[in-house]
């Protein structure tokens, strides 16, 4: 691994090593560009991952204090855990389920397609599907997405068998084991899936793509990467011209360090990324860095989600095998006749018994709750995931009344569902119920959204500087050598699990940064 | 909809098709036994308080297929917290007194249905929330409970489920290969 001096102002500094930051780091290093990658968490490995939900949660999850407000149920049930994301090398690619669907063409044109929706701050992306397609193709190849590049789909598990039979009986036509960044065959030095059932806990077989054991080691092998773990960035600094000059961070021993930079890329996921820009307010940028639009932290999206768990006479053992290898795609279309704009997917999902206890019905207790838990082995489950509306008032702000372990204001996440989100969730709950009742479910439970795994939109892309934070390449409108490199860039959420799009954008951004540096424009 | 579960549960118990009937009672912690041994297992809570809490825990997540020994770590967890924090100790002590005062006789002597009524009356209290909150992890994170409810836990050390039943469901037709290819 390379080593760069703190005053080396020629390096690109990337904050965060997940889907966006980890991919960007590798793509830059492959071009011979020197990168300092700062990761707040520690480095784990497949060998170190734990097949136990609570122990794994303690190992991987981002547990720094956060606060919540708004009418979303999370603020009541999990007031200090708005998001279920990770603080570890590889970021949330250690935890993600692997679902890798491309956005539809119209999802990049949300404002034009949906028209004006009251209370929604909709905008078209400054990038189109056609522009992104070559990068999607590269991302799918890099990640080894099933049903692309000649890679067979994963074999369906028990939960999928129930899901598939229900889907067909309910009249759906597009149901299969998904496009998953999980090897169905050994590929790219990684094993094939052993059907462990612990995708969310870090894949111990290494079959699931994670930057931890793909992009980052590949970048290290170039000798252009220095990865610093336990490095919590507290501020991005700028020079008199208003260009990013470096970052300040607390190192693994809690000592404040300063790293100079030629370019700074922020990929801390959609809560920490805007928080860091807001924490970097200065005399020149009093409202936070790159925030002349006032949009930093706003338009926080988390996808319309929910789960349907169904109980059957016969055993299912749904926790066995790949957690999310199953998708019904029929509802992922824009048909306002359903009573809402945008679409959603249904995807298989299982939780272990410990997390069923925590998430099936937060706050639940008594005989009804215990009965559902007793029927665990006879349960099938699905996740509902669809496009939610960006709203200016759904936002990440600094809570100056509460400080984290570094004495920094914690992020507050405010969220209210939009009426469109509520209408879609109701439709999706009914659709999921229909699927399971078609194969004889004897009981169906609607589980509310979990702490957010898809956090999006808080530093969104826009064609015009007044409408958003960054341009079509993630370059901030206000600070020319500052980039947003994670899901915070999303102008709208689409219906699809976001990781594939984040990775595609990172590949494209790396190409752009490389070209700009070569042209001495950065 | 939830009422459907009741009849289903009874069906499962009587048909013997659920794992619920499997007896794997481990050795009971001494504190579950009557007599002075109880005190030795508790850090700070008085025995009657612990006994009442145990009954409260059973009513919060009532599982006929679980024994007191499965609920005991939950009470032990509360006891440990009380030992570390006097505020928790008094929260639990006061809470148990409230339970015992609710119907004019000790909580543990009430029918389960009456116990549930009493608990519904205090479910928003800090006392109830403390006890319930602890139970989510203490009960459903307990490996002995997993065994009773049929959750198999870690799979990596057994090679996953690839050759151990990930697709052994036989009461529905297998999906076609284009939807669900055969394993490699």
TrEMBL record, chain A:
<feature type="domain" description="Glucose-methanol-choline oxidoreductase N-terminal">
    <location>
        <begin position="85"/>
        <end position="304"/>
    </location>
</feature>
<keyword id="KW-0560">Oxidoreductase</keyword>
<comment type="similarity">
    <text>Belongs to the GMC oxidoreductase family.</text>
</comment>
<dbReference type="Pfam" id="PF05199">
    <property type="entry name" value="GMC_oxred_C"/>
</dbReference>
<dbReference type="GO" id="GO:0016614">
    <property type="term" value="F:oxidoreductase activity, acting on CH-OH group of donors"/>
</dbReference>
<dbReference type="InterPro" id="IPR000172">
    <property type="entry name" value="GMC_OxRdtase_N"/>
</dbReference>
<feature type="domain" description="Glucose-methanol-choline oxidoreductase C-terminal">
    <location>
        <begin position="390"/>
        <end position="506"/>
    </location>
</feature>
<dbReference type="InterPro" id="IPR036188">
    <property type="entry name" value="FAD/NAD-bd_sf"/>
</dbReference>
<dbReference type="Pfam" id="PF00732">
    <property type="entry name" value="GMC_oxred_N"/>
</dbReference>
<protein>
    <submittedName>
        <fullName>Choline dehydrogenase-like flavoprotein</fullName>
    </submittedName>
</protein>
<dbReference type="GO" id="GO:0050660">
    <property type="term" value="F:flavin adenine dinucleotide binding"/>
</dbReference>
<keyword id="KW-0274">FAD</keyword>
<dbReference type="InterPro" id="IPR007867">
    <property type="entry name" value="GMC_OxRtase_C"/>
</dbReference>
<keyword id="KW-0285">Flavoprotein</keyword>
TrEMBL record, chain B:
<keyword id="KW-0732">Signal</keyword>
<dbReference type="InterPro" id="IPR006311">
    <property type="entry name" value="TAT_signal"/>
</dbReference>
<dbReference type="InterPro" id="IPR019546">
    <property type="entry name" value="TAT_signal_bac_arc"/>
</dbReference>
<protein>
    <submittedName>
        <fullName>Secreted protein</fullName>
    </submittedName>
</protein>
């Amino acid at each position: 691994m390379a080593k760069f001096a703190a005053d080396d102002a020629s390096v690109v500094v990337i904050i965060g090593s997940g889907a966006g930051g980890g991919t960007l780091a590798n793509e830059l290093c492959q071009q011979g560009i020197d990168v300092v990658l700062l990761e707040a968490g520690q480095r784990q490995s497949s060998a170190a991952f734990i097949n136990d939900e609570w122990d794994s949660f303690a190992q991987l999850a981002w547990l720094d204090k956060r606060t919540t407000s708004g009418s979303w149920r999370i603020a009541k049930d999990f007031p200090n855990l708005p998001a279920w994301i990770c603080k570890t090398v590889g970021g949330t690619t250690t935890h993600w389920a692997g679902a890798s669907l491309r956005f539809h063409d119209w999802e990049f044109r949300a404002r034009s397609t949906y028209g004006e929706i009251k209370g929604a701050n909709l905008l078209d992306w400054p990038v189109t599907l056609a522009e992104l397609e070559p990068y999607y193709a590269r991302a799918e190849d890099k990640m080894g997405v099933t049903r692309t590049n000649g890679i067979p789909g994963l074999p369906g598990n028990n939960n999928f068998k129930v899901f598939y039979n229900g889907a067909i009986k309910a009249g759906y036509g597009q149901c299969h084991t998904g496009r998953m960044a999980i090897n169905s065959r050994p590929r790219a030095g990684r094993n094939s899936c052993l059907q462990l059932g612990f995708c969310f806990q870090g894949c111990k077989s290494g079959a699931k793509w994670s930057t931890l054991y793909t992009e980052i080691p590949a970048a290290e092998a170039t000798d252009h990467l220095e990865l610093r773990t336990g490095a919590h960035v507290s501020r991005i600094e700028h020079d008199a011209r208003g260009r990013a000059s470096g970052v300040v961070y607390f190192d693994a021993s809690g000592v404040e360090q300063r790293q100079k930079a030629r370019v700074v890329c922020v990929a801390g996921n959609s809560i920490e990324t805007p928080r860091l820009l807001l924490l970097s307010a200065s005399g020149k940028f009093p409202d936070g860095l790159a925030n002349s639009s006032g949009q930093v932290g706003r338009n926080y999206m988390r996808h319309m989600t929910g789960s349907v768990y169904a109980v059957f006479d016969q055993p299912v053992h749904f926790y066995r095998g790949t957690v999310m290898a199953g998708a019904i795609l029929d509802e992922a279309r824009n048909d306002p006749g359903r009573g809402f704009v945008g679409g959603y997917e249904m995807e298989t999902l299982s939780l272990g018994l410990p997390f069923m206890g925590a998430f099936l019905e937060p706050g639940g207790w008594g005989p009804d709750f215990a009965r559902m838990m007793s029927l665990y082995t006879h349960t099938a489950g699905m996740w509902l995931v669809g496009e939610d509306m960006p709203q200016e008032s759904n936002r990440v702000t600094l809570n100056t009344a509460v400080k984290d372990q570094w004495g920094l204001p914690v992020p507050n996440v405010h969220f209210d569902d939009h009426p469109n989100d509520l209408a879609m969730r109701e439709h999706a709950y009914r659709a999921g119920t229909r699927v399971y009742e078609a194969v004889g479910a004897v009981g169906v439970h609607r589980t509310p959204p979990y702490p957010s795994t898809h956090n999006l939109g808080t530093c969104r892309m826009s064609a015009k500087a007044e409408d958003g934070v960054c341009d079509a390449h993630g370059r901030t409108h206000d600070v020319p050598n500052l980039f947003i490199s994670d899901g915070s860039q999303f102008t709208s959420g689409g219906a699809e699990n976001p990781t594939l799009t984040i990775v595609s954008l990172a590949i494209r951004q790396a190409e752009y940064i490389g070209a700009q540096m070569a042209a001495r424009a950065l | 909809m939830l009422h459907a579960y009741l009849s289903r549960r009874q069906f499962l118990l009587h048909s013997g098709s659920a794992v619920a009937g499997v007896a794997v009672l481990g050795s009971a912690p001494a504190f579950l036994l009557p007599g002075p041994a109880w005190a030795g297992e508790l850090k700070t809570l008085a025995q009657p308080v612990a006994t009442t809490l145990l009954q409260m825990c059973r009513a919060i997540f009532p599982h006929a297929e679980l024994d007191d020994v499965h609920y005991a770590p939950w009470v032990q967890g509360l006891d440990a917290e009380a030992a570390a924090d006097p505020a928790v100790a008094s929260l639990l002590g006061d809470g148990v007194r409230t339970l015992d005062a609710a119907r004019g006789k000790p909580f543990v002597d009430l029918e389960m249905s009456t116990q549930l009524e009493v608990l519904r009356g205090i479910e928003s209290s800090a006392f109830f929330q403390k006890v319930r909150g602890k139970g989510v992890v203490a009960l459903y994170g307990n490996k002995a409970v997993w065994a009773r409810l049929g959750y198999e836990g870690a799979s990596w050390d057994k090679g996953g489920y690839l050759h151990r039943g990930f697709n052994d469901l036989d009461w529905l037709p297998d999906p076609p290969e284009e939807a669900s290819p055969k394993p490699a």
